[in-house]
Amino acid sequence: MGFNFLALFAGATADIVPRRTLLMIAQTAMAALAILMLVLIATNLIEVWHIFVITLASRPARIFQRPTAQSLGVDSLDQNRIPNGVALLNAATNFALVVGPVVGGALFDLFGPEGAYAMVALLNVFSGVAAFFIGATRVSVSNKGESVFAVVAQGARYVKGEQLLWSVLLVAVIFNINGFSFHVTLVPIFAKEVLDVNSVRLGIMISSFGIGGLIGSLFWASIPNLRHIGLLCILVVIGWHATMIVFAASTNFYLSVAILVVTEMMFSSSLVMVLTVLMKTTPPEYRGRIMGLRTLAIYAHAFGSVAFGAVAGMIGAPTTVVICGMGGIGMMVVLALIAPKLRRF
Length: 345
Description:
This protein has 14 helices and no strands. By secondary structure, the protein is mainly α.
């Protein structure tokens, strides 16, 4: 959590430094750290403190990589293709969520930790090399000569004056506090307390997230000229929280898995809509800063997870899931009322 504030400066840096250059630096750093971890494991020199240091060092690289990669990816798209591009980016993430644990687990069983980290290192190296081959985009470097603090302040003033931007960023905060807390904290507690599942079945439940997310992302990627994105954003986030309430009523494992697939479809749709609104309404020279704010909003889930985890310990997971879902719906209704531009976009 200590590095999360860097998301603001990472986004601002992406609006100062050429994004392709910044992405190459971030990906190269992540690849180097993965190779270092692999070497330490292979030579049997790995110690606990090595893991902490490498993990700590990778955080800034990942924080800089996220807003830069998202901004750069959209820079290469026509305006009417942004929803499809965002959906495909999200689909890639969900594909990794489905395939990654399976392949990583298989390599770990066959070859030990060396095999799993060899895959991690290889993928990071591949990503770093791929960044070198990204063609130049039509976006020019802005804010030359300004300090990163001035660029951050400029971005904050810009968001404050744009109802559509601050409202959709609040949507991101809402579903990260409620939705991510449901996925990360409440589902495992529910699985243990209510469904009484073993680790294998819990893994199946977690994998259903990626399956549903992939279906949802590919669905939106297939729709040309998507319209009424702001209204769809409100509806899918409300629908997402509604599926949480339905999940709380289930006591059957297979039904719960099916509900989670639908829940993740709605979650994935929420991500696509939020990012689409942000990317379509933000001028290219501000995209890095806006994506930095979006990245910062993601970390709101840490506070939600702690709070809902504590509540679940006192009143049980099912009731807490209902509170989580109803709270998200209530906040979205209020936001829809005070931000008419989001409804009409």
